[in-house]
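Handout, section B. The chain below has 161 residues.
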Amino acid sequence: MPTLTDSRTLRAIELVWKEAQVLDAKDYRAWEQMYTDDAHYVIPIDPDTDDFAAGLNMVYDDKRMRHLRVERMMQGYSPSAVAAARTVRIVSRFTVEEITDTSVTLRSAQILNAFKRNEFTTLGAELTHRIVLGADGDRISLKVVRLIDSEDAVSASGYLL
């Protein structure tokens, strides 16, 4: 049975925490490099779906779309980049879904606190990360952000989840 003390699991958790730190620092180029070429970054609307390709999503990004999203976040004239929110995220409550010699799939909980234009916003989400373990470094091959309020209206955030 996979445990949180398994060295592969610890490597995966460290990468998830590193991703949170990189996003809070708005280091979007570094964030983009944390993903495998075939990875997907998904924010589904249906909290129960696993068929992201056929479902309705707020975000369903492959490599090309992640790159375009990063470009928008870095361009000063984009609404999402102008006065971008300052964020602090806490990722915890890790559970191991699957573990092999080459990958770890984790579930966790995220609380994201954002401050933009004199307003605070708090978002809660269930995260799924599939981490590919490699001798040259570990990378994310799937990230699913299941917002707890995904079926309600969500305004443009000005940050990546």
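Note. Helices lie at 7-24, 28-33, 63-74. Compare this with the example in section A.
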